[in-house]
């Protein structure tokens, strides 16, 4: 055993020398007491310190049994506690926060009144539990608070709302507002995730700016916040506050040198009018928020029963879409892409259709966006490809074995390397990938560099071509042309309708035409419906290809095959029949609801 000074301590005393043995034992005990890692003190009934070991002296700011001047407040507190406990004769365990030097320590102190040598004394021992407390605090924060914004999480706001509901004061109303940043994914994609995170922190700050003590703001997930306004006096008061909040959130955000604009959609439910449980109130605020999203975003709405009916109907559509995917109740209609000089079929576009449980066929306008939203679109696209592969013989017989086959891919998919890789593999597995063309809208090119660098090569290597669909309707048209080496541009129908009567559209058409010529891309006009539109294209432009009801509505092969049995006949038939007649033939075959 080593003494504090480093000398060996002899416990065994020389034979017969009991006084020496006692003195040695006392010295050992004193040193042990002094060096105990736990702080130990002994106080008398006046609160005076009779014994203080080194650890306790450091914790309480003492030099031996005397206070360092000035006496710390922890020490004063100890004195009072000592007097009180010895007076009452009770023992106690308490947590104490002390500052030793710069650092703060948390102590767990046990006080025990004892009677020694006829005196009433208080024996106190303090263990340092700072590390354990830090861990507990950390666990507490991560269980109840959002790391990014520091706001309470969904569990905390739910708890607060439930507490209010339990009180159920006769006139105590509150409001729950569900907030969602519009197009946050685009912002994240465009400005990068760190800036997206910075935006969320900024939004949280703006939202929390003038909340009352009794209100609560929570981040419940990604870009969703929940705001509890309590108490409220009237719907009008809440409406005014929400309008003010919307304005505040609309002001530009300056993040990392960029000026970012973001809007927010807000849905509000009121207690007790819109529900008597937290779950119902939250759900109804959510429903109101979704109705804002559907009506164009960036504003606020209070919940009403009509919205609930709409949400139910939507849920029904969602369920039936999930079921349709599970049961593979999809088919393809094919629309021809025609050479307007020769009437030859250059290619076809596969347009997906859903067959509902009653056998009614639905156009993609009713379900494609929903499939994207629900994360079902990848499966749907693979089903479309499988359908094409299954029908390749009739496709070849009807339209010719060299026609290109276009498949639409949603913008969200086009930016997803994982899906695009699996899709490229599926195209390769057909054995004829070079016949395929992928149609993507301009929205896909928000993340242009990624598309150009990581995704395009996957398809180039297979000979699969890329078409920019609905060209001119997105917000990146020209920059898409500059950066994406696509093979085809499909000019949106909105430019083509009545083109012969619209000089401005004619100018735009000419500009697109010469741009695409310079960039080596084929131009195709979408949505030709009338002879006049076609005649204009033929006479005034060099545009070679077109697609539209004038030539052919999207057709189902099943219905066409008996009438046109072989490819040569089919093509001869399509080419020789006047367009009007073709239109009637196809009109019969496309019976989907619009
Ligand atoms: P889109 O790719 O631009 O396809 C052209 C749409 O315009 C088709 O509507 C077609 O029937 C319609 N159309 C063609 N010619 C004319 C015309 O002369 N006049 C008029 N008024 N319309 C014409 P559809 O089949 O309802 O498809 C709508 C959109 O749904 C497509 O637009 C495409 O963006 C999307 N879509 C279709 N199939 C798929 C698919 O398999 N996957 C994905 N992600 N989207 C698809
Ligand atoms: Mg298309
Ligand atoms: Mg289009």
Tally of strands: 23
Which word captures the global form? elongated
Unreliable spans are 1-11, 562-594
Q: Could you estimate the helical fraction of the residues in percent?
A: 40-55%
List the strand order in the largest sheet.
15-16-18-19-20-21-22-23
By CATH reckoning, the class of the largest domain would read Alpha Beta
Q: How much strand content do the residues show?
A: 15-25%
**Main beta sheet, described?**
8 strands, mixed, barrel
Class inferred from helices and paired strands: alpha/beta
Describe this structure in words.
The chain is α/β, with parallel strands linked by helices and 594 residues long. It has 3 domains: 36-133, PAS domain (Beta-Lactamase), CATH 3.30.450.20; 145-303, Reverse transcriptase/Diguanylate cyclase domain (Alpha-Beta Plaits), CATH 3.30.70; 321-592, EAL domain (TIM Barrel). 45% of the residues lie in helices and 23% in strands. It has an 8-stranded mixed barrel, surrounded by 4 helices. Helix 6 packs across helix 7 (193-208), helix 13 packs across helix 22 (567-576) and helix 15 runs parallel beside helix 16 (448-460). It is elongated and about 125 Å long. Mean pLDDT is 87; it is low at 1-11 and 562-594. The structure holds ligand C2E and magnesium ion (MG) (2 copies). One magnesium ion is lined by residues 349, 408, 439, 469.
List the keywords:
594 residues; alpha/beta; Beta-Lactamase; Alpha-Beta Plaits; TIM Barrel; 3 domains; 8-stranded mixed beta barrel; 5-stranded antiparallel β-sheet; 23% strand; elongated; disordered N terminus; binds ligand C2E; binds magnesium ion
């Amino acid at each position: 055993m080593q003494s504090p000074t480093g000398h060996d301590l002899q416990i065994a005393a020389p034979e017969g020398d009991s006084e020496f043995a006692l003195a040695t034992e006392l010295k050992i005990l004193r040193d042990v007491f002094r060096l105990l890692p736990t702080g130990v003190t002994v106080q008398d009934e006046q609160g005076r310190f009779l014994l203080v070991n080194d650890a306790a002296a450091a914790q309480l700011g003492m030099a031996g049994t005397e206070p360092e001047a000035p006496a710390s407040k922890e020490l004063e507190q100890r004195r009072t506690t000592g007097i009180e406990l010895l007076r009452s004769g009770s023992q106690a365990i308490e947590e104490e926060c002390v500052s030793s030097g710069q650092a703060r320590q948390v102590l767990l102190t046990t006080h025990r009144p004892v009677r020694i040598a006829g005196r009433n004394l208080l024996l106190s021992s303090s263990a340092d539990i700072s590390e354990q407390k830090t861990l507990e605090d950390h666990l507490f924060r991560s269980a109840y608070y959002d790391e990014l914004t520091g706001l309470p999480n969904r569990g905390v706001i739910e708890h607060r709302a439930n507490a209010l509901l339990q009180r159920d004061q006769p006139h105590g109303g509150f409001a729950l507002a569900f907030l969602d940043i519009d197009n946050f994914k685009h912002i994240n994609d465009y400005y990068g995730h760190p800036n997206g995170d910075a935006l969320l922190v900024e939004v949280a700050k703006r939202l929390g700016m003038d909340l009352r003590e009794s209100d609560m703001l929570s981040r419940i997930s990604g870009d969703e916040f929940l705001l509890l306004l309590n108490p409220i006096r009237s719907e009008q008061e809440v409406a005014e506050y929400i309008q003010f909040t919307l304005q505040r959130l609309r002001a530009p955000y300056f993040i990392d040198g960029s000026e970012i604009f973001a809007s927010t959609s807000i849905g509000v439910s009121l207690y007790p009018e819109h529900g008597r449980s937290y779950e119902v109130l939250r759900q109804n605020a959510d429903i109101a928020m979704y109705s804002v999203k559907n009506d164009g975003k960036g504003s606020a709405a209070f919940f009403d029963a009509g919205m609930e009916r709409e949400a139910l109907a939507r849920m029904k559509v969602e369920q039936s879409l999930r079921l349709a995917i599970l049961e593979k109740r999809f088919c393809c209609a094919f629309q021809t892409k025609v050479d307007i000089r020769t009437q030859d079929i250059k290619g076809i576009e596969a347009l997906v259709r859903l067959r509902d449980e009653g056998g009614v066929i639905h156009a993609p306008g009713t379900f494609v966006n929903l499939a994207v939203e629900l994360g079902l679109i990848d499966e749907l696209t693979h089903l479309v490809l499988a359908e094409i592969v299954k029908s390749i013989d009739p496709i070849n017989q009807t339209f010719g074995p060299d026609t290109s086959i276009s498949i639409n891919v949603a913008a969200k998919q086009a930016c997803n390397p994982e899906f695009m890789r699996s899709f490229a593999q599926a195209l390769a597995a057909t054995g004829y990938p070079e016949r395929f063309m992928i149609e993507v809208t301009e929205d896909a090119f928000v993340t242009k560099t990624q598309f150009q660098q990581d995704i395009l090569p996957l398809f180039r290597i297979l000979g699969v071509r890329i078409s920019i669909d609905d060209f001119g309707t997105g917000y990146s048209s020209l920059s898409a042309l500059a950066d994406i080496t696509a093979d085809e541009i499909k000019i949106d129908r909105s430019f083509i309708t009545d083109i012969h009567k619209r000089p401005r559209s004619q100018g735009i058409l000419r500009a697109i035409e010469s741009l695409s010529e310079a960039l080596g891309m084929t131009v195709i006009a979408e949505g030709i419906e009338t002879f006049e539109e076609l005649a204009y294209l033929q006479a005034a432009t060099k545009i070679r290809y077109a697609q539209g009801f004038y030539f052919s509505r999207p057709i189902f092969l099943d219905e066409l095959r008996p009438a046109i049995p072989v490819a040569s006949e089919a093509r001869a038939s399509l080419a020789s029949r006047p367009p009007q007649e073709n239109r009637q033939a196809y009109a019969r075959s496309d019976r989907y609801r619009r």
